[in-house]
Amino acid sequence: MACIDAKGLRKTYGRTVALDGVDLTVEAGRIVGLVGPNGAGKSTTMGAILGLTRCEGELKVLGHDPWAQRDRLMEEVSFIADVAVLPRWMKVAQALDYVEGVHPRFDRAKAEMFLARTTVRRGARIRELSKGMVAQLHLALIMAIDARLLVLDEPTLGLDLLFRKSFYDSLLNDYFDGNRTILVSTHQVEEIQHILTDVVFLDRGKVVLALKMEDLERRYAEVAVRPEALAAARALGPIYERQGFDRSLLIFETDERTRLASFGEVRTPSLSDLFVALMSPAPARAEEAA
Amino acid sequence: MSAASETAPAPRRVRPFYWSVRRELWENRAVYLAPLAVAAVALAGFLFASHGLAQELRVAMGQASGTVHDTFSMMTERNGARVTTTLSPSRTAGFAIVIPYAATSFAVLVTTTLVGIFYALGALYGERRDRTVLFWKSLPVSDTTTVLSKAVIPLIVLPLVAIAVALAAQLLMLAWSFAVVSLAGMDPSELLPRTHIAAISTITVYGFATLAIWWAPIAGWLLLVSAWAKRMTVLWAVAPPAALSLFEFLAFRTDHLWRLITTRLHGGDNAFQAPPSGPHFDIDRLLPDPLRFVSDPGVWGGLVFFAACLAACVWLRRRRDPI
């Protein structure tokens, strides 16, 4: 059974189409990055998966209909919707007490252990903590919950680089164990590329690309084309072209790397470059490629 | 089943409702701090004037004539000249003895009522405004549990706090009075009936409880507004009923809705026996009449309206996005 199984998700707000037939399958044990520009429908997709938003289409999360069976689903699903949503009036100790009091799968000792590694004081009110410390507290609470699916919507937005890095490091080292599934959306694709097993690009309410990371290498190649080979390389129809330091960087959707090697050095494009390649308006791409 | 759920310890028993109510009290400390503060002020004022207590008791017992405490003469003049002239010195002194107890109950009731109004108007609005609703909704606490935990604050918690605080303050006043009177060489048992403490505490307990039930539909309406409004909750609370009343008045030349609202706001006297008419208000004759209260269809209609408001709150909390 897939952890998340969505077919033809549609959601409109008035005349605005937020989701325009999203199909998405996430197997258990994967770490999936949901990537897209602002307004692509990432948050709406996550809201649908969490039973916060009602959508048309078919959707099963851990075998449940998230809208109809939300209360049950929330025992097995955790999420961080935004960095700053912990209540500012609450004390750290109260947050621990409360989650322990309402969540059957919360392990208090674990949360205390994670917190002990930070500088978050138990007696402090959340309003007194820095944004990074609030994120650490939230992560400690979430990681102490034995959930099967964790959904993170821009969990590190506005945090500095050190906090962002340690956030994903602890997620990978202390939480993920191959049985859990993580769905994460972020703008900083390059920072989470190394922890992802899958990536889904979303644009204007549609899935543009759903890819296993091991397939990235097989399907896409980036070539640093020598100036004299540029015309020949362009003839092969790259999906994107940009100017490097002294080479043109062309991205191809192909598995014939040996043939591309004659134009210059071949490597696997980074997710952010691939993202830009696929998200750039189609006319510009065609123009550049022409 | 996956390996994760096999190795996981059995889920603990949890008490979402209990912890949700505690959560409300953590966030809204005014629920108990405001009545405590008012009771403390009342106690301080009482202590300040307590040196005159023995003299007041002597006057009330007819053992001394002369001036009674200033506090009282001020009170009676406000109540109108007629009252002042009809009261004998012993009676006015008796009134001065009873006033602190009655005023404390009244002040605590007004305070908890105000706290309740502001609480209910913010209960389901604040969490959307500061987006914490996304945190609350990430935990396995149903919308029904959440709404109920917020509804019990004005319906049950605030009345209980009001009763407890008022009775505790009155008990302290009584203990202090006994000490002052005894030190003056008088018999404290002369004081006790003149405080009318039995009647006042009965009215406090029974009156606060019935008033909470009578006002439940108001709490329900305010909670509904807090679940609905995107801004200006006070306006949403007041404007629609006022506008409908105005419409009814101009369209049908009737004022049923307006009277329904004002009767509800005023309220509370349907829980007591109708007092006999006379020049004096006698607190000992304000007697609880539970039968009159439970046979008032307005009480039951109000509770039905309250339940409907809560159901609407649950529905709205499910669907309303953060503001």
Distance between the amino and carboxyl termini of chain A: 45 Å
Low-confidence stretches of chain B: 1-6, 68-87
The fraction of residues in strands of chain B falls at under 5%
Number of discrete helical segments of chain B: 17
List the helices and strands and how they pair.
The complex is a heterodimer of chains A (290) and B (323).
Chain A: E1 4-13, E2 16-26, E3 31-35, H1 42-49, E4 56-61, H2 70-73, E5 77-80, H3 92-102, H4 108-116, H5 131-143, E6 149-153, H6 161-175, E7 181-185, H7 189-192, E8 198-203, E9 206-212, H8 213-219, E10 220-225, H9 230-235, E11 240-243, E12 248-253, H10 257-260, E13 264-267, H11 271-279, H12 282-289
Chain B: H1 3-7, H2 16-27, H3 30-49, H4 53-61, H5 70-79, H6 81-86, H7 89-123, H8 126-129, H9 133-136, H10 143-183, H11 188-195, H12 197-214, H13 216-228, H14 233-252, H15 256-266, H16 290-294, H17 297-319
Helix pairs in contact in B: 2-10, 3-7, 3-10, 4-7, 7-10, 7-12, 7-13, 10-11, 10-12, 10-13, 10-17, 13-14, 13-17, 14-15
List keywords for this structure.
A: 290 residues; alpha/beta; 2 domains; six-stranded mixed sheet; four-stranded antiparallel sheet; 13 strands; B: 323 residues; mainly alpha; 17 helices; globular; disordered N terminus
Description:
The complex is a heterodimer of chains A (290) and B (323). The mean pLDDT of chain A is 88. By secondary structure, chain A is an alpha/beta fold. In chain A, α4 runs antiparallel to α5 and α5 packs parallel to α6. Chain A contains twelve helices and 13 strands. Chain B is an all-alpha fold. Chain B has one domain. In chain B, 76% of the residues lie in helices and 0% in strands. The radius of gyration of chain B is 25 Å and the shape is globular. Chains A and B meet through β5 and α3 of A and α1 and α2 of B.
TL;DR?
The complex is a heterodimer of chains A (290) and B (323). Chain A is of the alpha/beta class. Chain A has helices at 42-49, 70-73, 92-102, 108-116, 131-143, 161-175, 189-192, 213-219, 230-235, 257-260, 271-279, 282-289; strands at residues 4-13, 16-26, 31-35, 56-61, 77-80, 149-153, 181-185, 198-203, 206-212, 220-225, 240-243, 248-253, 264-267.
